[in-house]
Structure formats: structure tokens, C-alpha cells
């Protein structure tokens, strides 16, 4: 009983953290690009929140309502002697039905997260022809493997009601808690799709002009799928090696697997939000410090002479749209944009600036998601405001040099 309580506590704690991350992601995207400019993966992540809640509820019901019982782990004599009107019979039937529902929710959740990640990669690599082909292949792999997995769950045992049949023994294929076909098909296709998705961003990150520390952080985030794969393999091994109690242990790892998958999908979207918050806090603290430590005529606010009253050397100004800032950006999307410029493609790179597109003002992190961002070129100008002055930029040329125009040029 203690083990069951520990699992329930863990499952709902992980659910709470995951829902919190999805909420932060949604807030970050809403403040960055606006709700009207949400992409497919933003809406799909909201669906993920609902499905993840249902999956956790199903895992809870298996233990709390049905006491972990299903139509497996019984001898032929026990099946023949079990009264259909008994409580145990009802518990085993209910547990078997919930196992089918749990498998369906589990696979839908994982493949929905895979699709979210593939859509995100597609947005990151927009404009890179060779990457566009890989993204399309990813969509095809995700769709085909999900259909195959779902069919194995729903059609592997026919008719469907045999999944909760008690007597006679329906066989392993019709025992959803320990079905080998459900387990093997799911884990193999899950690993195949995860391996392919992991292979998409790694070449770009490897070539990106980032410090080793930053590059390592990105690699850790995007390679978190290895842990998800390990959880899936362990889950399948527990079911195959322990047909009696393995299903309950596997349920714990299924919850952990889906939790880590949710975290991996949302970290790239939450990071810019925290970065904006930290910059805002730093700016507020800096303003407060400057206001309380004003230096006038060589004397501090307390009346004592300022020892370091010599004028500091003004750092060389680097425009926020320069190639240097583009390649050193912490943003994952800016990494890919820098890679596009290196490959000779037109792209607008914005960092630490404010850009006016039409009548609406957008921050640097908003413009990279703005629907018009990819169409800024000669004849369509954007106005850049920065601390060092005001400049107008339309694009970065194929040779990598910035081309400047008045915001009134073109329509």
C-alpha cells in the first residue's frame, strides 16, 4: 500500500510540474508572438496537457480502483473457478479495460510530443532546403509509426472485447497489461522516431559558432530524448520479465517517460521567457543603483570624493543586427538563422533591439517569430531602435553584409 501511495504522489507531482511548464510556455509564446500568431505546436501542447492529465488519471485508477488487477496472472483453474458475479471478476475486467485506455493515451501523448518537436524543428530550419526535406521525412515517420502502434493496440486482439476476457484464457496477445505485441511494437517504433528526431538539430548545433558551454547546454536539452528512450526500453523489459507484477512497475516508468518528454519539448520555449525576465530585473536593479549612486562633479551622493571619477572608455558599438551578435545569440532560433546566413541565404537576424514592422512594435525575440520576419527584403523595411542610436535595416545580403534602407522606401 505504501508503494502505491508513493507512486500516486510521484505521478501527480510530476503532472503538476509538467502542467506548470506548459503554462509557462504558453505565457512565453503569448507575450513573444501573440496568441494570433500561435503555431501548430503551441495548440498541440495544450492538447498534451489534457492527454497527460488523462494518462495520469488512468494510471491512478488502475491502482486505486482496480487494485492493479487485470485479466493476466491467472492459472486456468483460477479462471474457471472465478465467479463472473464476484468483485474480483469486476476488478479484473475494469482493470483490463483501463489498461487498453492507458496504452492508447500513452502512445498518443508520446507521438503528439514528437510531432510538436518536429514542428518546432521545422520553424527553426525554415529556409534551409536540405533540412526541410529531413523535416518532411520526420512528419512521415511520425505519422506512419503512430498508425502502426495504434493498430497494434486496437487490432492486435480481435474482437476488441477479448482484451478483458477472463475465461477461457484469451492468450498473451489479448492481455493488455502484459501484451508482448503492444510492448515490442511501441518500444521499437518509439526508439526509431526518437533517434531520428534527435539527429535533426545535432548537426546545426555542432556547426553553430557558440562557446563550448552554451553548445553543451543545447546538446543536453536536445539529447534528453535518450532518457525517454531508456525509460521506454525499461518499461518494456519490466513487462516481459515479470508478467505478474511488471505491469505496475512499468506504469511508474511510463509516467516518468512522458514527464521527461514534456519537459524536453517545453524548455526551448520557456528559456527565452526567463531570459527576458532576468534582463528586466537586471535593468530595474541597474536603474535603481544608478539613481541612488549618482556622481556629480566628482563627488558621490554621500558627499565623498569619487575615486574612480575618470571617464570610462566607451566600448566599441556593435550593431544588434551584426553577424557577431547573430552568431553569439543564446536563442536556439538565432543559431539556425546564423547558419542560414553562413549558407548564403537572405534572413533577418535581430538581437537586443526593437523592430517596428508596420504599425506594431515588436521586441527582438518577437520579430524572429513574426509572420513577416522572413519576408523583409528590399522594398520592405524594418526600423531598429537600439541604445546607441537608430538605424533601418531590411535584410542581410547573400554575402553576409547588412543592407540599410530608409523605412519609407518601398510599400
Q: Notable features of this structure?
A:
disordered C terminus, 13 helices, mainly alpha, 60% helix, five-stranded antiparallel sheet, 411 residues
The radius of gyration computed from the alpha-carbon positions, rounded to a whole number of angstroms, is 28 Å
| Count of distinct strands | 5
Strand order of the largest sheet: 2-1-3-4-5
Structural class: mainly alpha
Low-confidence stretches: 295-411
Taking the sheet with the most strands, its summary is: 5 strands, antiparallel
H-E order: HHHHHHHHHHHHEEHEEE
Shape: elongated
Please give the alpha-carbon distance between the first and last residues.
Answer: 71 Å
Family: Belongs to the SAT4 family.
Organism: Endocarpon pusillum
Domain Rhodopsin: 36-276
InterPro entries: Rhodopsin_dom_fungi (IPR049326), SAT4-like (IPR052337)
Describe this structure as you would to a colleague:
A 5-stranded antiparallel beta sheet has the order 2-1-3-4-5. A hairpin with a 5-residue loop joins β4 and β5. The protein is mainly alpha-helical and 411 residues long. 60% of the residues lie in helices and 6% in strands. It is built from 13 helices and 5 strands. The chain crosses the membrane at residues 6-24, 45-66, 100-121, 133-155, 184-205, 217-241. It is found in: Membrane. It holds the Pfam family Fung_rhodopsin. Keywords: Membrane, Transmembrane, Transmembrane helix.
Structure in a nutshell:
60% of the residues lie in helices and 6% in strands. The chain has helices spanning 2-32, 40-64, 76-81, 87-124, 129-155, 180-199, 202-207, 212-222, 225-241, 246-292, 323-327, 332-342, 364-367, and strands spanning 354-357, 360-363, 382-386, 389-396, 402-404. The N and C termini lie far apart (71 Å).
Amino acid at each position: 500500500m505504501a508503494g502505491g501511495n508513493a507512486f500516486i504522489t510521484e505521478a501527480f507531482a510530476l503532472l503538476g510540474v509538467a502542467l506548470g511548464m506548459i503554462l509557462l510556455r504558453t505565457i512565453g509564446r503569448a507575450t513573444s508572438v501573440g496568441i494570433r500568431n500561435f503555431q501548430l505546436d503551441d495548440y498541440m501542447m495544450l492538447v498534451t496537457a489534457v492527454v497527460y492529465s488523462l494518462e495520469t488519471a488512468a494510471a491512478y485508477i488502475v491502482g486505486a480502483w482496480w487494485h492493479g488487477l487485470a485479466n493476466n496472472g491467472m492459472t486456468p483453474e483460477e479462471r474457471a473457478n472465478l465467479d463472473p458475479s464476484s468483485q474480483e471478476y469486476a476488478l479484473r475486467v475494469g482493470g483490463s479495460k483501463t489498461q487498453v485506455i492507458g496504452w492508447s493515451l500513452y502512445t498518443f501523448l508520446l507521438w503528439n510530443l514528437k510531432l510538436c518537436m518536429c514542428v518546432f524543428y521545422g520553424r527553426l530550419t525554415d529556409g534551409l532546403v536540405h533540412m526541410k526535406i529531413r523535416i518532411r521525412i520526420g512528419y512521415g515517420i511520425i505519422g506512419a509509426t503512430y498508425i502502426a502502434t495504434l493498430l497494434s493496440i486496437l487490432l492486435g486482439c480481435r474482437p476488441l472485447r477479448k482484451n478483458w476476457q477472463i475465461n477461457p484464457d484469451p492468450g498473451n496477445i489479448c492481455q493488455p497489461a502484459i501484451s508482448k505485441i503492444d510492448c515490442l511494437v511501441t518500444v521499437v517504433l518509439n526508439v526509431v522516431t526518437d533517434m531520428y528526431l534527435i539527429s535533426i538539430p545535432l548537426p546545426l548545433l555542432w556547426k553553430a559558432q557558440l562557446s563550448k558551454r552554451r553548445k553543451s547546454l543545447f546538446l543536453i536539452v536536445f539529447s534528453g530524448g535518450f532518457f525517454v528512450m531508456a525509460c521506454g526500453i525499461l518499461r518494456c523489459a519490466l513487462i516481459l520479465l515479470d508478467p505478474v507484477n511488471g505491469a505496475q512497475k512499468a506504469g511508474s516508468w511510463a509516467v516518468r517517460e512522458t514527464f521527461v518528454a514534456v519537459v524536453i519539448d517545453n524548455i526551448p520555449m520557456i528559456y527565452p521567457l526567463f531570459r527576458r525576465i532576468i534582463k528586466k530585473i537586471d535593468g530595474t536593479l541597474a536603474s535603481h543603483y544608478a539613481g541612488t549612486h549618482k556622481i556629480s562633479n566628482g563627488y558621490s551622493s554621500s558627499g565623498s570624493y569619487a575615486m574612480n571619477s575618470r571617464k570610462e572608455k566607451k566600448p566599441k558599438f556593435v550593431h544588434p543586427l551584426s553577424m557577431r551578435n547573430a552568431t553569439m545569440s543564446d536563442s536556439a532560433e538565432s543559431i539556425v538563422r546564423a547558419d542560414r546566413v553562413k549558407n548564403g541565404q537572405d534572413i533577418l537576424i535581430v538581437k537586443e533591439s526593437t523592430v517596428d514592422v508596420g504599425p506594431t512594435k515588436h521586441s527582438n525575440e518577437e520579430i524572429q517569430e513574426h509572420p513577416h520576419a522572413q519576408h523583409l527584403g528590399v522594398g520592405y523595411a524594418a526600423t531598429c531602435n537600439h541604445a546607441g542610436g537608430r538605424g533601418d535595416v531590411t535584410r542581410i545580403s547573400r554575402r553576409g553584409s547588412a543592407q540599410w534602407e530608409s523605412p519609407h522606401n518601398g510599400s
